[in-house]
Recover the amino acids of this structure.
């Protein structure tokens, strides 16, 4: 279970705010928009610039061109961490979706409603659309329910839905 600390860990030693491991080598990094002190094992889950918690220098913010990439990394990391916390991190390979190869793009707000409306407008059932796209109906259910990241849906299925239903799902 992750430990969330409100104390200052600067000054050599403390606990990782993601996994709770005690470490003398903490690094401050941003995870899903929050600045956390992380152990060396959790630092890869962070995004953007990093600094040792012993450093007193300030960090530069994201430039406008990196903001979209940062949001995508954050969404991917949050999905992976949520599965790791539930003990289901092997799901990425078990269900045939390699998340690093078939990354879920940053989706527009209300993407599930858009897919459902477009599918219904095309007079298609979920099973029928799943057969047509050679996809798992559970993945289509997850998309329509707005939980694509938690369900491990790959970006290729989102792209196929955009093409088949002529709907925009990816935030540019």
């Amino acid at each position: 279970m992750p430990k969330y600390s409100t104390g200052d860990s600067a000054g050599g030693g403390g606990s990782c705010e993601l996994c709770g491991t005690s470490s003398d080598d903490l690094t401050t990094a941003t995870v899903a928009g929050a600045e956390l002190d992380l152990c060396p094992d959790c630092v890869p889950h962070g995004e953007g610039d990093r600094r040792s918690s012993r450093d007193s220098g300030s960090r530069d913010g994201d430039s406008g061109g990196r903001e979209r990439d940062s949001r995508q990394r954050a969404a991917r990391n949050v999905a992976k961490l949520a599965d790791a916390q539930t003990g289901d991190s092997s799901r990425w390979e078990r269900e045939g979706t390699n998340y690093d190869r078939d990354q879920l793009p940053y989706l527009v707000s209300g993407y599930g409603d858009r897919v459902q409306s477009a599918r219904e407008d095309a007079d298609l059932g979920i099973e029928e659309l799943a057969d047509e796209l050679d996809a798992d109906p559970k993945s289509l259910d997850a998309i329509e329910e707005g939980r694509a990241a938690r369900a491990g849906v790959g970006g290729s299925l989102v792209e196929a839905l955009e093409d088949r239903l002529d709907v925009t799902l990816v935030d540019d």
